[in-house]
Amino acid sequence: MKKHEPSFAERQQASSKAKQTLLEKAKARAADPNAAKRKEAQRQAAEKRAARAEANKAAQRAEKLRKAEVRAKQEAERLAALKAEREREEEEKLAAEKARIELEAAQKAKRDARYAARKARR
Questions:
Q1: Which of 92, 112, 115 is nearest to 104 (CA)?
Q2: Residue 102 and residue 96: Cα distance in Å, rounded?
Q3: For site-directed labelling of 90, which of 26, 49, 55, 74 has its Cα 20 to 30 A away?
Q4: d(CA 30, CA 45)
Q5: pTM for the whole structure
């Protein structure tokens, strides 16, 4: 069996009928007394969405700024702790050097005393 293929005229007529149906639906929607109310409700909903989106963006910017401030504070604290650690290490080095010098001086004094005692015995 052959399938029925519509002719050009039939396709044109079907297209015209479909367009006419769409036009009638659009006219019926425009003539609807609730259409203005629906459009107003849609407009208000769109405004509310835009306001919420702007508020969300502002909140995100504020959160980003807060996080940047926290990171800056943490970095400053880290640098201060690092500086204090370096200063402490420097003080320890100085104290160790001072102790070494004092020990050498005490050892030299002890050695000099032994030499003087030996010289005095002669």
A1: 112
A2: 10
A3: 74
A4: 20
A5: 0.48
